[in-house]
Amino acid sequence: MWLDIASTKWKRDEDEVKSARILLEEARESGKHGLYTVEPIPLEEKAGFKAIAFTLPDLLRKFGGRVRELSLDSACKSYFTLTIG
């Protein structure tokens, strides 16, 4: 029940990949207004394989070589973690 309620904040489409691409575009647009920037990385489409890629250039510039870990866990509909060390 919690997931259904919380998903209204981030779910843009029933297709998870399409939803993620929409969210990346929204984040890219909001980054133009002072938030950290998100840049989608285009990937070649392969039959039977779905993927997205993106970079966070401002975070990379800010933290550079101090980033120890960057992970994305899709087990609970996309949880992002950045560990600075």
Explain what the structure shows.
- The protein has one domain (2-84).
- The protein has helices at 2-6, 16-31, 57-63; strands at 39-40, 54-55, 67-73, 79-84.
- The chain contains three helices and four strands.
- It is globular.
- It starts with a helix and ends with a strand.
Quick structural overview:
This protein has helices spanning 2-6, 16-31, 57-63; strands spanning 39-40, 54-55, 67-73, 79-84.
Index terms:
3 helices; alpha+beta; 85 residues; globular; two-stranded antiparallel sheet
Uncertain residue ranges: none
Average pLDDT confidence is 77
Strand content: 15-25%
What is the global morphology? globular
Briefly note the structural class of the backbone: alpha+beta
Strand order of the largest sheet: 1-2
Number of domains: 1
Q: Main β-sheet, in a few words?
A: 2 strands, antiparallel
Span between N and C termini? 36 Å
Total helical elements: 3
The Cα radius of gyration reads 14 Å
Number of strand elements: 4
Q: Secondary-structure element order, as H and E?
A: HHEEHEE
Instruction: State the helicity in percent bands.
Output: 25-40%
